[in-house]
Amino acid sequence: MVEHHDIDGPVRLSLAAAAARKGELILARSFRLHRPRGAFCHRGWCQQCKVLLDDGRVVLACQTPAAELDLWTRPSAMLRVIGRVAERFPPWFHEHRFLRPRRLRQVYLNLLRRLSAALPLPRAAAEAAMVWKTRSCRTLVVGGGLAGLAAATELAKAGRDVLLVEAEQLGGSANYVAELATEVAERRKSLHEAGGASLEKAICVGLYNDATVALCALADGMMSVRFDELVVATGAYDRLLPVRGNDLPGVMGVRAFERLAHQRALPRGVKIGLYAEVSERARARAAAAAAGYDFVWVAQPQAILPPGGSSAIGGALAAIEGSSRVRGVRLGDGRSLNCDILVLGFSQPTYELQVQAGQGIAFHGPTEPFGTAGPTAAPILVVGEAAGVTDPSLAGQDGEAAARAWIAGQELDRGISHSPVAAIAELSNEAMLCPCEDVRVQDVRGAIADGFDNVELVKRRTGAGTGPCQGKLCHHALLSCLAEAGLPVALPTMRPLVRPVPLSCFAGEDDG
């Protein structure tokens, strides 16, 4: 029996997309330095587009319907002058200035909060009581894109009790790729016919009890799922490059661009630049062609042009230029390229659930995404983009093949080799390493120079990785800083929740 919680309509325009259509890219201000912020991921995980509505609600612009656009309270730039002064100091500047005398400490903290760009606490709203649900299954599949659908279907055909949970609607990011629409429909149908159960708008926020219980956030509360084996099909994140200006509004990843292009959310005539490695470049070009957009220029890290007569410009990215929004880029050879939107095509496979299940980090250097390796507390199969398969048209095939091999007690050999892509010459001191907490590369390097010689100490000293995105934007650059200093390369302790969840989800009656 399939449980199918559908979303109204195929793809709804978000507040962030509606604002982009009007040319408004500045959605928020950063916490400490009041720097302008825009949506980078358009999927809800980067947390950079948190906005205040007139009715007191604090929401993510990329996850809020466009109908709320008229309620959006535009962020003020008045305190940016204070932010410019604060940029001269490290994140821990307050330690010697605002902690003594002790009797004034709370006064200082209240003042710092007022001078920050922290949004007010949302007003209490009358909501229906949330429900806590429990269930069990043999196989839990997290992620309902093509790879997750295919793997779940194969496992269900083999007679396993399968539950698939998807944060959006079944098909995931493939819903925004025009040429994959038929495959999405077919794989949804196949899962139904195989008897697999699925839940949409169900976000798996973490693993508990030695990775045998998953906690999922639903629209009406929380659900704990006890399982025997786990399939991770959570895709990949768009990776932010650590160069100066990387936090400017108008910088977005390829997966975000796919969504905006699918919704025709970018104004006609806007100048869009693309800087991407080979596979991501093809993905972005396909999205642009399907929506009728053109790139004013395409650049790639490699100086040698790939086969096929590509006209892409080659060279390392030195800086992203602009003051309050993107105006162009500068390459390592000094060339400047103008644009209003910059699409970055570099990805990082998701890793949180694997680490919570016991695996460690496999770091391949600052030019490549990192992976996970090692034993896990419960049997885990990783498929699709989460396993390094970057071509979305191959995700379904990978899910099928990996699940069949798993059923047979074998391991799929994908033949994926690490190909270093030197997108930047070096980490820029001025780059925003942690946009959530306004921590720059120079701040992390400074903390390491002061003797904070492991990732947990660096995190506590700088605040890097402690923001609402939980390190998704900064972990790669943080690991790179540790590696360049010759320190052990490891992530901070990876605890649930991997995505922010409203406290109201935990308030309600237990229906057993």
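The above is record 1. Record 2 follows with the same two-line structure.
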Amino acid sequence: MKKWIVTLVVLFAVSSTQGAWAQEAAPATNMVCPVSGEKGMAGKESYVEHKGKQYMLCCKMCEKDFLKDPDTYAAKADAGLQVEGEAHHSH
């Protein structure tokens, strides 16, 4: 009986601290949507996490596009590139 209680206590301790070990994604710093190129996203933005970093997108439609090719769009956001002349949905 004592072993069972000790096991439960250990499992509880491990599970309650497990969240503290998880790393949070770095906050988004991009001010231009890497998918659409839209600026001024305040109030309608969407966020997506990729490889431990958070990216701000202008809308849920861009979130779907970002997730189709996350490495390309993350690189655009990291480089601060504006997407101009790309075929994309209209807002």
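The longest strand covers residues 46-50.
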